[in-house]
Prior knowledge:
Layout: H1 2-28, H2 37-60, H3 62-86, H4 89-106, H5 109-116, H6 122-131, H7 133-147, H8 157-174, H9 184-189, H10 194-198, H11 201-230, H12 235-250, H13 253-263, H14 265-285, H15 289-314, H16 323-351, H17 354-375, H18 381-385
Helix pairs in contact: 1-4, 1-5, 1-6, 1-7, 1-8, 1-11, 2-3, 2-4, 2-16, 3-4, 3-8, 5-6, 6-13, 6-15, 7-8, 7-12, 11-12, 11-14, 11-15, 11-16, 11-17, 12-15, 13-14, 13-15, 14-15, 14-17
Amino acid sequence: MLLSVCQALSVSGSTLVIAITALTGNWLAPNPGLATLPIALQFAVTMVTTIPASYFMAYVGRRVGFTCGQVIGITGALLATWSIIEGWFWLFAISSGLIGAHNAFWQYYRFAAAESAGKAFRARAISYVLAGGILAAFVGPQLAKWNIDLFAPYRFAGAYFVICILGIVTVALLQFVRIPNPVLQNLNSGGRRIREIARQPEFFVAVLSSAIGYGIMNLLMTSTPLAMKYCGYEFSASATVIQWHVFGMFFPSFFTGHLIRWMGTQRVILTGAFAIAACIAINLYDTAFINFFTSLLLLGIGWNFLFIGGTNLLTHVYTAEERAKVQAAHDFIVFGTVAVTAFFSGAIQQIFGWFLLNLIALAPTGIVAFALFWCRAHLKESDCVG
C-alpha cells in the first residue's frame, strides 16, 4: 500500500510533466521543432539510468535506491523552475534529463511489489501498485491547472516547483517501506548470461509488448497537447484529455491482474494492442474534442494491458540472482524506445502532421499482435496464465 501511494505521488509529478513539458519547450525553444526535445531527453536519461539504478538497488536495497531517485527528481524540478524564470531552454532540457533519471528509479516500484509477494499474488501486486496512478490522473493535471501561473509572469514555473513538494512527501513515505534486503552472494554469482535469457520466447514477448506499448503511448500522448493547441483548443482542454488518459492508464490495474489469471497474459496483451489500434482509428477519423478524449482514454487502457502483461511475463524468465540485470535490460529497451518516440514526435508532427503521426503508430501495434501469434506455440501455458 505504501508503494501504491508512492506510485501515486510519482505518477502525479510525471503526469504534470507530460501535460506541460512540450508546451514549455515550445515556449522556450529557439525552434518549434525542438519543442519535444526536453521530454525526449528525459526519456533518454531514463533509459540510460535504468541499468545503474537496478544494480545500485540490488546492492543497497530498494528503500535507499528509491530515496536517492527522489532526491535527484527534486533537484531536477528546482532547476526546471529556475530555467523557466531565466528563460534558458538548454538548462530546461538538462533539468528534464535529471527528472528522467529520477523516473528510472521509481519505475522499479512494480518489481519491488512483485518481490514482496508470493508467486500466486505477483500479477495482482504489480497491478495494485500501478493502480496508485489513478490518483495521479486527477491530481497531476489539476496541479498543472492550479499552479501554472503560480510564479506569474513565468508560466509553468510554479508547476515544476510543485513537483519538488511531491518529491519531499514521497521521500518521507519511503522511509516506512520494508522490502526484503538483497541477497548479495546470489547477485554476485550472476546466474545465466543475458544473451541466454533473452533467447526465451517469454522474454522476447515481454520486452516487445512493454516497449511498443510504452513507445506508442508516449508518441501519441506527448503529441496530443501540441495537436490540440494547433487545432485551437485551450490548455485546460488538453489537460483534461491527459487527465482521463492517465485514468485509463491506471484504473484497469484493479482488475488487470485478475484478467491475467483468467484469460492468460497473451490474451491480455492482445486486447491491449486492439485498444491502441482503436485509439489510432479514432484519431484518424476526426480532431473533435470527443475524439481526442476517447482515443487517449483507449490509449491508456491499451498501455495498461501491454505494460502489466509484459512485466508479469518477464518475472517468469529469471531467477533471484538474475533479477537485476534482466529487469535492467527490460527497462533499458523500454525507455530507449520511449526516448526515440519522444524525440521524433515533435518533428514528425511539425513536418507531416497529426494524421501521418497516427499512421506511423499503427504498424508497431500490429507487430505486437503478430509476435504473439508467432510465439504462441513456444510460450509455456503456465507462464501465460501466471
